[in-house]
Amino acid sequence: xxxxxxxxxxxxxxxxxxxxxxxxxxxxxxxxxxxxxxxxxxxxxxxxxxxxxxxxxxxxxxxxxxxxxxxxxxxxxxxxxxxxxxxxxxxxxxxxxxxxxxxxxxxxxxxxxxxxxxxxxxxxxxxxxxxxxxxxxxxxxxxxxxxxxxxxxxxxxxxxxxxxxxxxxxxxxxxxxxxxxxxxxxxxxxxxx
Length: 193
Known about the structure:
Elements: H1 2-69, H2 76-84, H3 93-112, H4 117-137, H5 139-142, E1 143-145, E2 148-149, H6 151-157, H7 159-170, H8 176-179
Antiparallel strand pairs: 1-2
Helix pairs in contact: 1-3, 1-7, 3-4, 4-7
């Protein structure tokens, strides 16, 4: 009986060992698979990330801008309220809305054009300053409490993401001190593909 018990435990040990070896093999092969997948995704993003960012900028700015041009933007009342609280009160509301919409459309188009990053970022920076104004000029519209934005406040704060993506695109160009041109040139230092 002692021999039987001993042989069963040897079999269990062997099965445990087989199971452990299988788990180690499985983990290694899954790590290799995930590493290859991770590497492929990173390569894909590095290859097409700039183009995707440009298209996303175009879609957001052109779409939201064209809605303002046709005076059908849901942000229209916010723009109108902001206009009445700033030094631009002398501009008719519809005219301002159309001009502001054209400004956004221009940002979207400039984002698509290669070598126009510097100009696009400048125009986008002016736009983001303007769109952030309600956070300070219209706090009752943008905030429901301390650091608790309303839906409109969240809509405005999401522009930080647009700013960050714009900064990443802008960081890939050579400084004007090197090029002495307003037209942007890609900096080969950031060619990571």
